[in-house]
Amino acid sequence: MKPADFRYARPATLDEALTLMAGEGEIAALAGGQSLMPMMNFRIAQPEVLVDLNAVADLAGVTEMDGTVRIGAMTRYSDLARHDVLARLPLVARALPHVAHPSIRNRGTLGGSLALADPAAELPAVALALGAKVHLASTHGTRSVAADDFFQGLYETDRAEDELVTAIDLPAATAQETYGFHEVARRHGDYAMAGVALTRRDDGLRIAFFSVSDRPVRAKAAETVLRDDPTKLDLAIEALDEIDFTGDLNGGPDMKRHLAGVVLRRAWAEVLA
Amino acid sequence: MTTHDITITINGEAITATVPARRNLVDFIRQEAGLTGSHVGCEHGVCGACTVEVNGTPVRGCLMLAVQADGAHVTTVEGLADTGRGHRLRAAFQTHNALQCGFCTPGMLASALEYVEGGGTADRTAIREHISGNYCRCTGYQAIVDAIVEVIETGEGA
Amino acid sequence: MTGPALIFDKPNAYIGQSTPRADTNRLLEGRGRFVDDIQLPRMLHAAFLRSPYAHAEIRGLDTSAAKAAPGVVRVLTGADLEGVVEPYVGVLTHLKGLRSAPQMPLAVDRARWQGEPLAMVLARSRAEAEDAAALIEADLDPIPAACDAETALDPDAPVIHPEFGSNLAWERLVDVGDVDAAFARDDVQVVSRTLRFGRHTGVTLETRAAVAEYDPSEDRLTFHYSGQAPHMMQFIFAKHLGLAEENVRVVANDVGGSFGIKIHTYGDEVATAAAAKLLGRPVKFVADRYESFLSDIHARDHVVEARMAVDKAGKIVALDFDDLTGIGPYSMYPRTSAIEANQVLNLTGAPYDLENYRARGRVVFQNKNMMCQYRAVGHPIAMAICDGLLEDAAAKIGMDVVEMRRVNLMRDDSYPRASASGMKLDDLSHQKALNVLVETMGYDALRAEQAELRARGVYRGIGFVSMVEVTNPSPMFYGIGGAPIASQDGATVRLDAGGGLRVSSSVTEQGQGTNAILAQIAAGVFGVPIERVTVTTGDTDTVPYGGGTWASRGAGIGGEAMLQAAHALKEQVLEVAAVMLQSDAATLDIQNGSVVDGSGARMTLSDLARTVYYRGNELPSDLKPELIATRHYRVTDFPFVFTNGAMAAHVEVDTETGLVKVLNFWAVEDCGRVINPKLVDEQVRGGVVQGIGGALYEECIYSEDGQLMNATMADYLVPMAVEMPDIVVRHVETPTKTSVLGAKGAGEAGTGGAPAAVMNAVNDALRPLGATLWQMPMTPERILKALGKV
Ligand SMILES: Cc1cc2nc3c(=O)[nH]c(=O)nc-3n(C[C@H](O)[C@H](O)[C@H](O)COP(=O)(O)OP(=O)(O)OC[C@H]3O[C@@H](n4cnc5c(N)ncnc54)[C@H](O)[C@@H]3O)c2cc1C
Ligand code: FES
Ligand code: FES
Prior knowledge:
heterotrimer, A: alpha+beta, five-stranded antiparallel β-sheet, four-stranded antiparallel β-sheet, 31% helix, globular, C: 790 residues, alpha+beta, Aldehyde Oxidoreductase, domain 4, Aldehyde Oxidoreductase, domain 3, 3 domains, six-stranded mixed β-sheet, disordered N terminus, binds FE2/S2 (inorganic) cluster
């Protein structure tokens, strides 16, 4: 189970990295490698050029300004978990321990998780629930996309092939903010069978599910129900029919539909608590 | 085939070699450096048998390329034995029979060491969570947890 | 059984002590010696092209591009091995009627399961071999496949071996008493269930691995292998590669877990040996994890229709079942794939006093990976059938499950006797084991807590199993049927000049601690500190001839041989000592490395040995000491030495998510004489966790057209640390009378018993909700379906 041959480059600056990304052939960015390397070992992914982002200083680091936390794409889960800023990102703090296992969190990155857009991953859903903004860059320039528009399908995002995710903006939690998170997984650290992340602020309620569909999904109808009346949980659960449930090895769409209701019930209890 | 000239310091010894870009770190350690204590169990990041320390942090040796570790300091199970680091853990693993075939042991020790040196408590659930990414088919884990608990409770470090 | 007296309570009696395993030092310091650690000059690496289809005609394999790829030395196909490898057939004569087709290491004109090797690339590196394997153009024509065992016998099912006319490999019926009359009685209640056992597999952390070296100048093959039965493999390579048996050396050093996975003849390993012979160069093959899932033997895969009749007093009046098992397209060589079904028929109900028993087993071919013996062969099925129905019946008649067992378990004073299926039983302790279990777990308090929690909507369940385990098999297991599988094992003990003991044995070590207990026995029986014993196992060139490790026989058979050999050497040494010390051998003993008499140490063993080896002139000329002894041992009076155990699981079912949490597990084992309590406990724990894996997590999920859908460790769920409980182990010791040592096996009980206990516990939790589930693994989706929530 060895990867196919490829060319390897380790740029030191973002510009160099973007130039490499704009090259010919099949090119992949290498972040933590905790998803890309397994795919390459299985030869499911066979990039011709690997652009290793690990030496690009511009992609690391966490900054905070005007109630917004900007997290560099190459920030590793374990660095984030130790960072002071986590006090202002309680939902992220709540979700992180559910992502894989310590030595994988020592390498895996936030940017990698968003770029990969695994429908069962925690952080993309957390990004949705927080209304995150994803910053992208290519040799053509930079742009940012709301998380709502970023996730477009199974492992599909709005990111163009030559673009890099450079950072993620997350709103720092306000005093009134409450949040909820629940996932059910067969084993600790596994991708979930179903999960939900949600935030309730003055300006609204955002509910994002993972591992129930082909991408992380908002449950907008349920949001409306619960925003109008926090006691109408049963109605909100009924409203989850809006989601296009897709099955996996853990169960079919019916199972996902059922579990979505269960995790929402449990996460909502956290919000109300 | 694309190759790179790299130098990795493994257990204090600088190893220079020309390696294919696709050679992963654990294969480098085993084949180029001849340190076969680190094992390969799945090559997709799940089993933890390949866990080694890179610049002091335990990582999956099968999910990192050797070329990515160019210039890095790597510690393997042999390095721990050489310096005596983790000797209390090793002794406790032996007393509790926390290894049977021993194939998981190098990775298990790396994870256990991270936990104990990181100031982890003797809470069995927390210990189990910390080693949740290390597969052991033989022991059923209890003896491993017992060994880690004993080392922590003794209070003299790993 | 007569033999050395007082071996269990002398100063050096290590038997019964939790002596730490000396060989763990190496493993803890990264100095293991596993097959993949071997690097040899000119060694080539093998990769295989495997069939992507469950069933396909091989029209052609164009290997030209692969041959031209960088680093490639040779590409071999099935056709290239014709005439090089003699085909093998997995049948045994004592399994009457069992049939299987000749098999080649690489498929020749038909591929019969997804993952079957079609071609082999030999290259400088594994990566280059894989590159080239991807360049082989395989012209394959997929043909209809018979994947589902349940329909494989249908008249319109594709027949995998047309010469047989159907996919039936073997069938056996056991019919004892009058089952129909018993079920027809009007004073009985009947429960009937369909039980399904998913396929799972071994997932040894070290995958299968082999390095084959061939020296044409001596026509000699050395095969380094990660496996359990070196002498069996020696025979197989000799026979199928046309070599003299003495010219084949099989070496098994450290083995990273085995559990029965590594005791079979795999095409890729035979091809590795054949390639080494053809090329005259060392060849290494290390299965990657994907290949492991596709080609390591799978296990279980049974569908059982079962019913049980009980009377008002809770007495089992009759048990009747029909077991259908799918084994893949061939019966595995040489142990065959019918043994598991045979065990199910032999073992079901064996703990219980049962008069009317009928069991039919059918073994069918199908287009999936091969199924064969894996830890606790047949036991989980046998125990789940009987104990599952027993607890179901108890619920039906409103009787406590422990009480019902007490009514039905064989009495401890009723041995020797036979089971309903005719198994000879002796020295068992079911009633006592159950009593110890009930006491250890605090049964009454748990039931009270369960009732209280249930009222609050928390669903906990308690489930039991009373079980037997087949250990220490005699030649009746395999040898009688013509397999090259020794049931005897040998031990050699040699006193070296320095006073140390060098021992070797034909049983093998895969982590269970065989070497350690052999050292304990040798040191204790002979009389040296254990540090002075060096153990060699796993090398056909140096160890006595024997069967290796299977069916939990290392301690019971290998241990007894070691005991006899150490005792024989001791007698020799005392004879020499008596002459040298001019005293009577009967007054002498060996303790702590010295010859002693009533007044204390008289001479060190080193002094004695140096005199014998270097200064023979000091001895009388008619005294010719050997200072080495070899003994072999096999079980003669019984086909098997059964052990027994009682286990209980305590679980909580999350009725909304379907997740099961195993809260506690208790195991009471009677494996006869316990040589090293720590090692036995850990065998039981590891086994229980594997059993929990089978009950809750592990399953090889196939698509309808025979594609393995979860051939990764991310998708095939093995038990990990967080989900596993701490396991309480207790012992009842009823030594077997078949040996001096009195040890029975212990390695498989946990795996054999835990699934039934967990299933019963889950069903105990679900019953108040009107649901039960009879399919393993008991996944969240299946539980939610049983509850009608999905
Ligand atoms: C055993 C195991 C268990 C796991 N369990 C979980 C889990 O429970 N939950 C979970 O969420 N994840 C899990 N993961 C995945 C882990 O979180 C990954 O690290 C993460 O999904 C990807 O991050 P990475 O930095 O490793 O990205 P990589 O693997 O390096 O890259 C992933 C993909 O994103 C692209 N990419 C990466 N960074 C960028 C960028 N900055 N710009 C553009 N493209 C980029 C890469 O080209 C690649 O296609 C698990 C992994 C393993 C091995
Ligand atoms: S070999 Fe790296 S995690 Fe399994
Ligand atoms: S001791 Fe064998 S895998 Fe852990």
